[in-house]
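Please check both lines for our workbook:

___
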Amino acid sequence: MHYSETKHPFCWPSQGLVKFDGITVQGQFICAFKQEQEQGTLPAPAIPHKFSLDQNYPNPFNPETTIKYSLDEQEHVFLVVYNALGEQVAVLVDTQQQAGSHSVIWNGTAANHGNLSSGIYFCKIFAGSFTRMKKMIYMR
């Protein structure tokens, strides 16, 4: 079957298994579909299916970096930055938060508002029984 025979204007032949957001593989064809929504309505935000701590971006960073994390249920979140010696240098989040995706921007300063030196730092999240740590590199 040729892709023009699919009767869909947004289909083309597949050269193997391909996965993208908004694209579905159907047999030997890839078809893209646009989601329609009513005017004046917004889709409900998706609640993540698991807790996660994403790698900060950019990394290495200067002067700031974004740290994203997801909660699959309401929890008290404690997001902390440690230096390479394991000393706590900054508390970025210490509050109860709803389920969903969250982010915080860290500007590379310590809790006492002092500037930190270039080096390796660790971001650790505590949310209920969930804990994860990511390595970050700060370059001044």
